[in-house]
TrEMBL record:
<dbReference type="Pfam" id="PF00474">
    <property type="entry name" value="SSF"/>
</dbReference>
<dbReference type="InterPro" id="IPR031155">
    <property type="entry name" value="DUR"/>
</dbReference>
<dbReference type="GO" id="GO:0005886">
    <property type="term" value="C:plasma membrane"/>
</dbReference>
<feature type="transmembrane region" description="Helical">
    <location>
        <begin position="355"/>
        <end position="380"/>
    </location>
</feature>
<feature type="transmembrane region" description="Helical">
    <location>
        <begin position="107"/>
        <end position="129"/>
    </location>
</feature>
<keyword id="KW-0812">Transmembrane</keyword>
<feature type="transmembrane region" description="Helical">
    <location>
        <begin position="78"/>
        <end position="101"/>
    </location>
</feature>
<feature type="transmembrane region" description="Helical">
    <location>
        <begin position="626"/>
        <end position="647"/>
    </location>
</feature>
<dbReference type="InterPro" id="IPR038377">
    <property type="entry name" value="Na/Glc_symporter_sf"/>
</dbReference>
<protein>
    <submittedName>
        <fullName>Na+/solute symporter</fullName>
    </submittedName>
</protein>
<feature type="transmembrane region" description="Helical">
    <location>
        <begin position="150"/>
        <end position="172"/>
    </location>
</feature>
<feature type="transmembrane region" description="Helical">
    <location>
        <begin position="514"/>
        <end position="534"/>
    </location>
</feature>
<dbReference type="GO" id="GO:0015204">
    <property type="term" value="F:urea transmembrane transporter activity"/>
</dbReference>
<keyword id="KW-0813">Transport</keyword>
<feature type="transmembrane region" description="Helical">
    <location>
        <begin position="386"/>
        <end position="406"/>
    </location>
</feature>
<feature type="region of interest" description="Disordered">
    <location>
        <begin position="560"/>
        <end position="579"/>
    </location>
</feature>
<feature type="transmembrane region" description="Helical">
    <location>
        <begin position="588"/>
        <end position="606"/>
    </location>
</feature>
């Protein structure tokens, strides 16, 4: 169904179904009981943490600024961990293995290379937002302020489409895996997975997602690292050289169409390079049009955005690369052995497209323990990433719909209530939408391939909104609409041209999806530039600051109240302006631009393209080095995600809280003289004081 290597899969007989290694009871315990336990534990923990922090540092989760943006105080370590967590989709964990099964070693590499440059690039977008509109809560507020309500509605629709398909992509893959491992009904899994997410996101807001994501990410990475050890202690593999021999033998049994010499051990893969183009465009759309990434950027302190996203993006590369390479190689090499779940047949195209390469490989090397581990990481991944999607949509419904079009003078309590409604509504809607897709025959593979067609039209108009002052209002409104129409037309037209019909099967092939995604992503550049030429705009970035967006300042009774609160709990007030010197923010912008270019060149040009052009086939030594570097990188990623947040502010804030609970108060901060930033003044807080330590705090 996927073109290239996947076309050969279509000819396979369905074969006997695989018996789930775990019982349905285990599935329900993990999805329902564990989900509710995590939610309940999170509720208790967040209640305790919220009470303690309110008492000791002034953080109040009943305030919208705290609920939605964590007072814009998240430090580099937790930002990097949150970035890694944000990309730990079930799609990444399962998809990297299935493209490795299809295309060989090139598949997981290009999967990773399609993610990390986009994550690092977002550092540039994030710091630009910090410079130009530091009080914003969502990217859509930026659009509304610059272009007005019509553009706001257009981009709001595009962002919601992005979130809907992203959630469907996650739920389809996760529910299929849970069903295959436990026998749990796939629709039950689809509806029950969002339950725990809804509860803990409902209670804790964005800070709950930061903290819960941290623990979920730690568990996922520990299990991923376990698989890198277990793979080579399994007796039928034995070593990296043994795995190399197994993959070589698999290529002789089933040569890969489109790969040099039909081998899995080459970067010269036509299917993989097409997937790479498709994947990087799709991920560009997912990042730019997903308000959850903007929320986390707004939540980070100004000095943490660039290093947090850069470290997180580079560290993340190892997860799909290393895990996908090892697990897909295991599946290919052990597929003809009795230990493999589908033995004596190969995996069917449906099994591959449902993302079952990883779980079947895990079952082969670790039995029921491997199945349980995959079940756990699938559950952790889908709940972690789904929480970010849910709060992103709730932010749209509360700030961009309720506050803007229903209740302009909404208070903190009103907006929190609207956010809670948004959390519940979207969780239920995403489950229902995923169920509909399942019943029309759409799976993880189909959504992974076509995602960019619907997520990419707003990429450049949105980026131009923040980075290009000349884009006109008409261009911002029309370019994404025309881009969406162009992308869909090219997608369906090429499906008809290449395969003679427009159906679920043909629209899921790689060629129509590549053409449609590229058209959807890049045609808006032409539309925007041409429309802007007729009547260009020269937007004054200072206009962004004229609209007051910080709710805590709006709701304060008087300036005296604010001043008193600043003295008692400096961190409790909303940072309505950046706490960094504008020149410092500009320097961070240059650093972000450098790392964006460097990451793209490294992962897309310098490293892979010479190997592609030379038609290099991996030897035993090179394959061993390839795998070893991937494993080391993965373990470093685990250390970054788990320990960096603790070392970077965690110990400091825990100490501060402990001292406050013991009755020892730090010296209250005294606001230093203000610095001028454009048309308004910025109050600079001494970060070495008690309040400053919280503004750079971990929890």
């Amino acid at each position: 169904m996927r073109g290239g290597a996947m076309s050969s899969l279509d000819t396979r007989a369905a074969g006997a179904s695989v018996q789930p290694p775990l019982s349905q009871a285990v599935g329900y315990v993990v999805v329902v009981v564990l989900g509710l336990v995590i939610a309940l534990a999170n509720r208790i923990a967040m209640m305790v943490i919220t009470k303690v922090l309110k008492k000791t540092t002034g953080e109040d989760n009943e305030k919208t600024e705290m609920f939605m943006t964590a007072n814009r105080s998240v430090r580099t370590g937790l930002t990097a961990s949150a970035v890694i967590s944000s990309w730990l989709w079930t799609t990444a964990i399962l998809g990297a293995s299935f493209v490795g099964y299809d295309y060989g070693v090139a598949g997981p590499f290009w999967f990773a290379a399609g993610c990390s440059p986009m994550i690092v690039f977002f550092a540039l977008i994030g710091i630009s937002c910090k410079r130009k509109i530091p009080d914003a809560h969502t990217s859509l507020e930026v659009v509304r302020i610059r272009y007005g309500r019509v553009a706001h509605i257009v981009f709001m629709t595009l962002c919601l489409i992005n979130n809907i398909f992203a959630c469907a992509n996650m739920l389809l893959g996760a529910s299929a895996v849970i069903s295959a491992i436990t026998g749990m009904h796939i629709i039950a899994a689809t509806f029950l997975l969002p339950v725990g997410v809804t509860v803990y996101t409902f209670v804790g807001g964005i800070k709950a997602t930061f903290l819960t994501d941290y623990f979920h990410t730690a568990i996922i990475l520990i299990i991923a690292c376990y698989f890198t050890i277990k793979a080579f202690t399994f007796e039928e593999v034995g070593s990296i050289g043994g795995l190399y021999d197994l993959v070589q033998a698999a290529a002789k049994r089933h040569p890969v169409s489109g790969n040099h010499d039909g081998t899995y051990l080459t970067m010269t893969s036509k299917g993989a390079i097409l997937f790479a183009i498709l994947h990087i465009c799709s991920n560009f759309g997912l990042v730019i049009m997903d308000t959850s990434y903007f929320i986390k950027a707004f939540s980070a302190s100004p000095s943490s955005v660039v290093p947090g996203y850069t470290i997180g993006g580079i560290a993340y590369f190892a997860i799909p690369w290393a895990l996908g390479t090892i697990m897909s190689s295991l599946a290919l090499g052990l597929e003809n052995r009795p230990v493999f779940p589908t033995y004596p047949r190969r995996m069917t195209s449906t099994e591959v497209s449902n993302g079952l390469v990883l779980p079947y490989a895990a079952i082969a090397i670790a039995g029921k323990g491997g199945a349980a581990a995959v079940l756990l990481i699938t559950f952790m991944a889908v709940t972690s990433t789904l929480s970010a999607q849910v709060i992103a949509v709730s932010s749209i419904l509360s700030f961009d719909v309720y506050r803007e079009y229903i209740h302009r003078s909404a208070s903190d309590r009103d907006i929190i209530r609207a956010s809670h409604f948004g959390v519940i509504f979207f969780a239920a809607f995403s489950a229902g939408f995923s169920t509909m897709l399942h019943y029309v025959g759409i799976d993880l593979g189909w959504t992974l391939y076509m995602l960019g067609v619907v997520t990419c039209p707003g990429i450049f108009p949105m980026a131009f909104t923040i980075l290009w002052r000349r884009q006109s209002k008409a261009a911002a409104i029309l370019a994404p609409i025309l881009g969406m129409a162009t992308g869909i037309a090219v997608w369906l037209g090429t499906a008809q041209h290449f395969y003679g019909a427009v159906s679920v099967a043909t629209t899921g092939e790689i060629l129509p999806c590549v053409y449609g995604t590229v058209a959807s992503a890049f045609s808006p550049i032409l539309y925007s530039v041409v429309i802007t030429l007729f009547r260009s705009q020269r937007y004054d970035w200072a206009d962004f600051r004229k609209e007051k967006l910080g709710l805590d300042r709006v709701d304060s009774d008087s300036d005296a109240t604010v001043d008193e609160r600043q003295v008692e709990h400096p961190a409790s007030t909303t940072t309505t302006t950046s706490l960094s010197d504008p020149r410092e923010l500009k320097r961070w912008g240059r650093i972000a631009a450098f790392w964006s270019v460097a990451t793209f060149l490294g992962h897309w040009v310098i490293w892979p393209l010479p190997m592609y052009g030379s038609q290099y086939v991996f030897g035993r030594g090179f394959f061993s080095a390839w795998v070893v570097v991937g494993i080391i990188w993965l373990w470093i990623t685990m250390l970054v995600a788990i320990f960096y947040p603790i070392l970077d502010g965690g110990i400091q804030q825990i100490t501060q809280v402990y001292r406050a609970l013991r009755g020892r108060k730090d010296t209250p901060s005294v606001p230093s003289p203000s610095i001028t930033d454009g048309s308004h003044e910025v109050t600079k807080v001494d970060e070495k004081s008690g309040g400053g330590s919280n503004s750079a705090g971990w929890i």
